[in-house]
Amino acid sequence: MSLNVLYDLAVLLFAGLISAKLIKKLRLPDVTGYLLGGLLIGPYLLGILSAEAAEGLAIISDMALGFIAFTVGGEFKFSYFKRVGATPIVIAFFESIIAVLFVTLGLLVAGCELPFAIVLGAIAAATAPAATVMVIKQYKARGPVTETLLSVVAIDDAVALVAFGFAVAIAGTLNSTESVSLLASITAPVVEVLLAVGLGIGIGFVFTFALRFFPHRDARLALVIAFVFLGSALATALNVSALLLCMALGATFTNLSRTSAEVYSLCDQLTPPLFMMFFVLSGADLNITVLPSIGLIGVVYVLLRVAGKWSGAALGAKLMKAPETVCRYLGPALIPQAGVAIGLTFVAQTVVPQYAETIRAVILCGTLIYELVGPAITKKTLQKAGEIDAGI
Residue 327 and residue 329: Cα distance in Å, rounded? Predict the structure, then answer.
């Protein structure tokens, strides 16, 4: 590792520490401070961290997302689903699909072409678990809304990938003069989801078994790091979702091991600096120069995605007779959107290349807005639900 890389890591940590300290005066979540600090030092404002340096630190994002997914997977306990049934699954389906429908129809009304509206609308389904997890951890939120939220954002990624697969298949058929296998295009994302989950479950079994031979805390911490990194690496090698794989790993482990609480406690001691660097780096990647190019399409996307998530979560919760606090407060906490959505834009470029620049600009702009306001809204929402102390 070069001295330049060590310097860049130090910059990320200093920026995170100072921005979190300052943002506390506004009573906003630390993650908002990290993002703003990264935005300030990034290549689009002060340039303290160059675009090349940010790209060279991409491994930080891979490591952090692996642990975030592993943490979310730890909430998938059989005892929880035995108690609440299919409620989180139904909510995740409705909030994802209604967001897709709202955005797609809104874009069509705004005069966009059908293939473009379908692809951009499908990306609206994705939700970012990272910022949500950080807010919950910082304020130690507990209650039915928090429980449901963690489960929904985990299931959401699977729904988003499948929905996007359907959208790409339809858009590709509409946009192509050649013969396209609609069935193959639709089944591909389903296979990807199943492969990621299946691998995660398999690695989870091996991890749980291996843990028996390492009773000491230091060894267990090293082992969990090794398995999370292994899961992320396999996902990358096989071109499947690392988030889904690591979630499945965490879910399998938490249901098989009696010592899962201890292991997650060890992770909590390791991950804060990693998460800090990840969000500062994410802030540095937010391209503020795309804001002027958002236009009517961007406004439709940003507003209707929020409306779809909010109303879809409320509808799913009411259908499943979830607690009133879940019906009222879950939707606003589903606003953040980042990595998965940006990743899907690269796929979209191959399906509707003539719209690639517009789709990327809209998603980057949406990410900038959602990531900066989302954590604060999540905090306020959980306070109103009575799951975070109102005085914090």
Answer: 6
Across the chain, the runs of DSSP E, i.e. the strands, are none
Average pLDDT over residues 162-175: 72
Q: Are 42 and 281 in contact (CB under 8 A)?
A: no
Nearest by Cα to 255 from 85, 81, 69: 81
What's the start-to-end Cα distance of the chain, in Å?
40
Q: What does the pLDDT average to over 196-213?
A: 93
Give me the DSSP letters along 234-277.
HHHHHTS-HHHHHHHHHHHHHHH-TTHHHHHHHHHHHHHHHHHH
Per-residue DSSP letter, 113: -
Closest CA to 60 of 263, 336, 215, 279: 279
Which helix (H) or strand (E) is 45 found in, with range? none
**Long-range pairs for 103-106: beta carbons < 8 A, 24 or more residues apart:** 103/300, 103/301, 103/304, 103/305, 103/308, 106/300, 106/301, 106/304
Residue 238's CB: how many other CB atoms inside 10 A? 14
CB of 173 closer than 8 Å to CB of 143: no
Overall residue count recorded for the chain in this entry:
392
Distance of CA 190 to the CA centre of its chain: 19
pLDDT digit string, tens, across residues 206-261: 999 999 999 899 999 999 999 999 999 998 898 887 878 898 999 999 999 988 88
Per the CB < 8 A criterion, the answer to whether 283 and 34 are in contact is: yes
Burial 334-362 (b: 16+ CB within 10 A, else e): bbbbbbbbbbbbeebbebbeebbebbbbb
pTM: 0.78
The DSSP line for 169-181 is: HHHHHHH-SS---
Whole-angstrom distance, CA of residue 147 vs CA of residue 207? 25
CA angle 12–70–167, rounded 5-degree value: 95
Taking a C-beta distance cutoff of 8 angstroms, is the pair 28, 228 a contact? no
